[in-house]
Structure formats: structure tokens, C-alpha cells
UniProtKB/TrEMBL annotation:
The lineage of its organism: Bacteria, Pseudomonadati, Pseudomonadota, Alphaproteobacteria, Sphingomonadales. The gene is trpF. It catalyses: N-(5-phospho-beta-D-ribosyl)anthranilate = 1-(2-carboxyphenylamino)-1-deoxy-D-ribulose 5-phosphate. GO terms for molecular function: phosphoribosylanthranilate isomerase activity. Belongs to the TrpF family. It is an enzyme of class 5 (isomerase). This is N-(5'-phosphoribosyl)anthranilate isomerase. Coiled coil: none annotated. GO terms for biological process: L-tryptophan biosynthetic process. The keyword Isomerase applies. Its EC number is 5.3.1.24. Pathway: Amino-acid biosynthesis; L-tryptophan biosynthesis; L-tryptophan from chorismate: step 3/5. Residues 5-207 form the N-(5'phosphoribosyl) anthranilate isomerase (PRAI) domain. InterPro entries: Aldolase_TIM, PRAI_dom, RibuloseP-bd_barrel, TrpF_fam.
Length: 213
């Protein structure tokens, strides 16, 4: 199966359209106030309405409560919920309550971190292997950090999975070849500054994914 791509942290119609026009399979909206990509519900609703049925809308959250999830799922017409820093039992509860695909981000720095994906079997729909950010960082993702892809060598993934963390148009082809990732996810690697998406970088990234299978 060809690798598909999620463009995350979209905040404007023009950059959303660049992702859709370039063939993204997923688009991501961030609901985390500390992020430079954070969206209001009104903006999310405006963007969500432009997304065709064959593209999945993914909401990104950091250990959210039900009130935030309810409002964001409605506004963003979310098909999937991406959870960072969220314990397996809570991931399972969210999946059951919201009855849609739930992604568990697993932060990777060392080999032992990869094993933590197993805790989400039966709880999440998909594991998102992402680079671990520093303990004192304000964001658990979206910082353009990458992890050592060789840590995924020989891993028997407990669930469907995706790769993120420090990807960009220059390294995504190698990332796909090296890991065999079925889905790649990018945010800062297609930006000109934190939170500012760049349409040319989005196009370059999606072209690299499409042509390097
Ligand atoms: O993008 C953010 O601001 C963000 C905030 C909180 C949690 C996750 C966030 N982004 C996710 O992080 C990964 C990797 O991003 P990057 O490509 O390294 O910048 C990606 O899945 C984003 O969805």
C-alpha cells in the first residue's frame, strides 16, 4: 500500500487547500492553547467544511477533558482524535465515548519507549510514533524533533501505526524507505516559522511522499 500523509496544524483556508490539493489523506487541527497552531472552534468549523469526504479530519489534543473533546469534535467535524500524553485507560474511555478513530502518540527517545506502544493495544486505533520533546518543553509535539528511526527496526507493531517527528520534504522519502511507515505526519517541517504553514513546503512534502514509494 502506498504511504499516505497527514499535514498537521493547519489554520487557514489557503494552507488547508494546499494540503488537499497536494493529496493529503489526513489534515490536522490542533486544540491545545500552548501551541502556535491552536485553533478556535469557529476557525476549525470554517476549515472543516472545506474538507472532502475522502480526507480524514484529525483533532490533536494533550490529555483533554470531555468538554473540550465534545466541542472540538463537533466544530472540527473530526473523524479521528489524536492524543498526546494520555494514559491508555483514558484513551480507551475516549474511544468508547466518542465512537471514532483514536490515535495514541507514543513519545520516542530510547528503545524502551517503543515498547510503551503495547500498552495501547485494545485502547487506541493507531499508534503515532513521535519524537520525545524535552521534559521542560511546553509542547509534547510539533517541535520539529526527530528520533532515531532505527529504533523501529524489527518492531512488531501492536496496532496500525504512523510516523512523525521532525519530518520534512528533504527527509520524508528516506523516512519511508527506512521504516516502511504506512502513514507520515508533519507539522513544523512544512512551516516558515512556528505556526506559519508554507504552501510550497506542503507541496514539496506531499510530492516527496507520492514519488518515493
Ligand atoms: O503541532 C503542535 O503544536 C502540537 C501540539 C501538541 C501536541 C502535538 C502537536 N503536534 C504534533 O506533533 C507531531 C510532530 O510534529 P513535527 O512535525 O515534529 O512538528 C505531529 O504529529 C503533530 O501533529
Amino acid at each position: 500500500m502506498p504511504t499516505t500523509a497527514k499535514i498537521c496544524g493547519l489554520t487557514s483556508p489557503a494552507t488547508l487547500d494546499a494540503a488537499l490539493g497536494g493529496g493529503a489523506s489526513h489534515v490536522g487541527f490542533v486544540f491545545f492553547p500552548a501551541s502556535p497552531r491552536h485553533l478556535t472552534f469557529d476557525v476549525a468549523a470554517g476549515l472543516a467544511g472545506r474538507v472532502p469526504d475522502h480526507v480524514q479530519r484529525v483533532g490533536v489534543f494533550v490529555d483533554p477533558d470531555d468538554q473540550l473533546l465534545e466541542a472540538a469534535v463537533r466544530a472540527g467535524m473530526l473523524d479521528a482524535i489524536q492524543l498526546h500524553r494520555t494514559a491508555p485507560a483514558r484513551v480507551a474511555a475516549i474511544r468508547s465515548k466518542f465512537d471514532r478513530e483514536v490515535w495514541a502518540a507514543v513519545a520516542i527517545k530510547l528503545r524502551g519507549d517503543v515498547e510503551k506502544a503495547r500498552d495501547y493495544a485494545g485502547a487506541a486505533s493507531l499508534i503515532l510514533y513521535d519524537a520525545k520533546t524535552p521534559d521542560d518543553a511546553s509542547l509534547p509535539g510539533g517541535m520539529g524533533l526527530r528520533f532515531d528511526w532505527s529504533l523501529l527496526d524489527g518492531v512488531r507493531h501492536p496496532l496500525r501505526w504512523a510516523l512523525s517527528g521532525g519530518l520534512d520534504g528533504g527527509n520524508v522519502a528516506e523516512a519511508i524507505r527506512r521504516t516502511g511507515a504506512p502513514l507520515v505526519d508533519v507539522s513544523s517541517g512544512v512551516e516558515s516559522a512556528p505556526g506559519v504553514k508554507d504552501m510550497d513546503k506542503i507541496a514539496t512534502f506531499l510530492k516527496a511522499v507520492a514519488t518515493n514509494q
